[in-house]
Amino acid sequence: MATMPAFFRTTYAPAYAEATRRAAPVRAERNPFELRALPLEDVFFYCKKIDNSRLEREHDPKAQGACWSAIGGAVVVLALLTGVLAPSVASTMAGYKLEALRAEERSLLDERRTLELQEAELLSPDRLERLAREQNLVTPASGQVFRLDGKSDGAVAMAR
Question: According to DSSP H, which parts of the chain are helical?
Fold first, then answer.
């Protein structure tokens, strides 16, 4: 087949024939405002609708093992990556928790100082003396005060 075009190219012209002289092509005057031709301008593409809805993929026995090995490899890589990154993530989370606890401790200490200050203001002797005067309280006489010792003489009241 490769030699077929060469076979058809042979001409049966007589050997004595003169070489005919070709006329020079006449070139038309070129319009200066005309654009030159684009490459492959004369090529036209037609779109044909192809219906592949009835086609079924042929079963490939080699592809089944490759899929599971790829999934297994991805799981191994994921497990290694998790094992490498887990300690640093846990350390970062512990740092955040520790800082939150320190902030809570600072706020609780501030609240404690505020409460101690309020308690000192409420228990100040000047305030207690002023409250006693407002409620008409007087200092008890020496015979009105009974001191309770922690010693028991055996007489204890029992609730029945």
Answer: 4-8, 61-122, 125-134
